[in-house]
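Subject: Interface between my chains keeps coming out wrong

I've been trying for a while to get a sensible model of this assembly. When I model each chain on its own everything looks fine, but I need the whole thing in one frame so I can look at the contacts. Pasting all components below, labels as-is. Any help appreciated, I'm running out of ideas.
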Amino acid sequence: MNSLDIDKPIIELENKIAEFEKISRENNIDLSNEINMLSNKLVNLKNEIYENLTAWQKVNLSRSGNRPTTEDYIKNICSEFIEFHGDRLYKDDKAIVGGIGIIGDMPVTIIGHQKGRDVKENIQRNFGMPHPEGYRKALRLMKQAEKFNRPIITFIDTPGAFCGLEAEERGQAEAIAKNLFEMSSLKVPVISIVIGEGGSGGALGLGVSNKVAMLEHSIYSVISPEGLSSILWKDASKANEAAEVMKLTSSDLYKLNIIDKIIKEPLGGAQKNIEFTSDKMKEYIIEQLNEYVNKNEEEIVFERYSKFRKIGYNL
Amino acid sequence: MNSLDIDKPIIELENKIAEFEKISRENNIDLSNEINMLSNKLVNLKNEIYENLTAWQKVNLSRSGNRPTTEDYIKNICSEFIEFHGDRLYKDDKAIVGGIGIIGDMPVTIIGHQKGRDVKENIQRNFGMPHPEGYRKALRLMKQAEKFNRPIITFIDTPGAFCGLEAEERGQAEAIAKNLFEMSSLKVPVISIVIGEGGSGGALGLGVSNKVAMLEHSIYSVISPEGLSSILWKDASKANEAAEVMKLTSSDLYKLNIIDKIIKEPLGGAQKNIEFTSDKMKEYIIEQLNEYVNKNEEEIVFERYSKFRKIGYNL
Amino acid sequence: MIKKLLSKEKGYAQVSVNKKFNTKNVDEKFWIKCESCNSNIFIKEVEENMSLCPKCNHHFKLSARKRVNLLIDEKTFEELDKDLVSMNILKFPEYEEKLERYTGKSKEKEAVITGTGKLNGIDVILCVMNSEFMMGSMGYIVGEKTTRAIENGIENKLPVIIVCASGGARMQEGIISLMQMAKTSQALNKLSENGLPYISILTDPTTGGITASFAMLGDIIMAEPNALIGFAGPRVIKQTIKQDLPEGFQKSEFLLEHGFLDLIVSRKNMKNKIHQILKMHGY
Amino acid sequence: MIKKLLSKEKGYAQVSVNKKFNTKNVDEKFWIKCESCNSNIFIKEVEENMSLCPKCNHHFKLSARKRVNLLIDEKTFEELDKDLVSMNILKFPEYEEKLERYTGKSKEKEAVITGTGKLNGIDVILCVMNSEFMMGSMGYIVGEKTTRAIENGIENKLPVIIVCASGGARMQEGIISLMQMAKTSQALNKLSENGLPYISILTDPTTGGITASFAMLGDIIMAEPNALIGFAGPRVIKQTIKQDLPEGFQKSEFLLEHGFLDLIVSRKNMKNKIHQILKMHGY
Ligand SMILES: [Zn+2]
Ligand SMILES: [Zn+2]
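Reply #2:
Try treating it as a single job with all components included. I did that and got this:
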């Protein structure tokens, strides 16, 4: 089942309403009662579907090709943005974008996984799956942010770090480990927002943060549902069942105290109204940044440390 | 003219003495007067030749295949040594070796260019010409030394950083620049010893140090004599003339206040008696290290800064 | 090939010692075939030889408890948090049963043993992962015990040694397992800021979340010869690139060449090498 | 090809504007052929267009003095150490003559101009290298002026901008030239420790010791399009590898792809882009 399947009954109903309107118009018949009834039904249907998405439906929504990406949010929440490239070591990994942006009137460093918005861009962006150089670029920009006392915003949206030969050769594990290590002592606040897929260590490599928020329909998990079902049940087709037991939705993770905030999406998902989603996101970021203005470096580092220290401590 | 040419008249005389001794022995003739005379002549000849080496002869001596390398000195001056590999980014560059050694009773981090001692090893070591990953390994080990408050010894012996496609692709310039930048603020003392060829930026990449010493017959220059003569005179064969104007010998550089110490080599060069050279070297290192025991971090950084700051300041 | 065939005729055990050690049949067979040199060797001889092949020095897997004994001076090991056991926080199907099964089989309660002890007289913190317990996967108890051990090191100014052996995250604990990567890495950052050395020792296999956290964060990283070390497992990579992997890919020697290991040390020299490094750090 | 031949028949100047600008014949010719798009263009038009090709935006070399005027608000530039001139410390043959010749030709005393000025109203330190003066090579005066400018930035808490254009070390100053790499790099380290931003701008050509020191040390590194940037020059590399170099090798776009540049900025946008970055740093 993909995201289109979720929308299918809604689209059918919308088509029906459009048809009625056309008939009414062309034949000058009053169908307003019928149309009203269907419109009400549509609202209910949307509510029913979108408010009761299964975990697996959310997985698909979080991955859907029209879901807004890091660059889309940057465009919407920043008055200015300059992208900075490269890890200064080996390559500019296009699966991660980063730079300085202005949110409200505050300069921040923004770093995020970047998926493509069409096939061509997806190939260029490696479907948002970074190589080690992506994590090293991210770290470079985080250290730069720390030097100039800029808060850091990261957007998480990756199926995972790339599992290829060259990625292993160049130290995928080292690059992620180093980021976890270095992020944990950054002297500036780091706010992470999972905007789509938060896949495993590849996601966490941008996620050792003071605050971790998730868009309502995004997911965050240790492995993909497909991966889990093939490991545990030797059957990748049971991914939907796997998704249900994994606790990977924003509400699950909020209940588990792993994330700090769920950012509301419009009915049907972020792609239906990116301005709405961006506004909510911007609001959250500004609110958080204002809080950190009065905190000193030690408080910031201590807060972050405590956040992760307690996961599996008081159990 | 190569190093063998320098030794040629000496070897001829040595052969003659051996011949006389043989004749004397086999025929029971007393040739002791002749032999004594020749032996005296030999001492004088050696003195004359080795004390008056031309710059170009020193260039050849510094490059000669039997000149002791970093590993040879490590073996001779350390009671223990453990080599550490890798830049944690891309590769273990065998043109630079590094690790922890014990000199006297002091643990130090030792890093040096490593030339091969035969053709096979030279290929493996890339003739002592590092790629960027060599400089990055060096920097990693220097930062490790700083963390554990270990002094750093570097041995300089390279024709230069490697000038190849991949070296450029992976940022040869960045790697060297980063080392200059980072070495300048290391909180532990750094002592460099030029043991053979100190070639250009590739040498300096291990050379931003509190003290820079040179073995008597080593060289240190901005470019090779061959390179200079081909740039300035469009004629690589004038390298010997170039060497004379370049001021690249230890005594030239001592007079120019670029280096702090000339470490004496045995007559004929370090390879004639590596124990002698190593002892002198060890003596120098221990004497220096003892001085730094009583200096604090600020003094150490300030001393290094001042050393390079004044080159071309009070002119 | 001929050797292999011959040995088959003789009816020797054909499974690798790794698998063998995990089955109840161990005592029923006396012989084993070394997967490296193909020699037929006494199991007992292997066991008495630090689980090394007496012929070719092949490193078979070593249980965590034996590793502790190998590295720590006799009667000096004091285990920490040995009674911490995992709960099924996510209510993941059959997780309790699995834990019970592994506890019974391995006689250990979790996939890591932590404690303090003396290494040739030097006080150290030692954590040893146990690949026999649920593939050495990192649940929150593994993360918690490791973190507490590191914190103990910080408090008592002791060097920390972690012997890694793991298949990665513990699926049954989902995101909680993932977050242990952050938890342990940040503890190591604190250790580092306190100027204390951390030696990471990678053994076969070290993959997944362990590699992408504390395995790769050692001030000094050493590995046993021929250990599998990587982020993604070979099977996953093969699926991704749809090609066979090159010979020796993700083995210790490969990682050394690619700059991710400081040194490869044979099991026999491990204790002395650690001791030498600690001495060089003033212990 | 046909286009080229035709243009030859018309008798237009065939040399590149780079060379042209350095000869006394500049005023004798009106036309020039752009080396990128092959268009025939008025020299005057190029000069009035920031030395950009009006047809294809090709970036011709720009003299240091013009660069200063391009980046700094009118009448706000105060040059520093403008009378420092090199002496022949090594007594290198014909060095004085060479210095004199270049001084005459370029009307500058050394290969770098340093000073303070306002960039869209923001106080900055600006150093601009001059590739017309002895290939923009770094002698001790270049090193000294640059270092003093950086120190001025530290003292007055100003951001530092260095526009690089250099063939590398100054051979005639031997080891003294080499040491300027260390001197400038350590000054930038101090600037960095003072939390002040350094923007490095790479223009055609940036090679040798400059690249291996301050060029690559920018907090933000930008380059003009299609500039040659590298450690070793293409000729040397070709000799080493005995192969032709790949298309675009060591050009700005190549370095961006390989992770060594933050961004490529057209000369026309350069001042505004720097201004935007400085604003983002609180200036
Ligand atoms: Zn064997
Ligand atoms: Zn043009």
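Reply #3:
Confirming on my end. Chain D touches chain B through 56 residues (CB under 8 Å).
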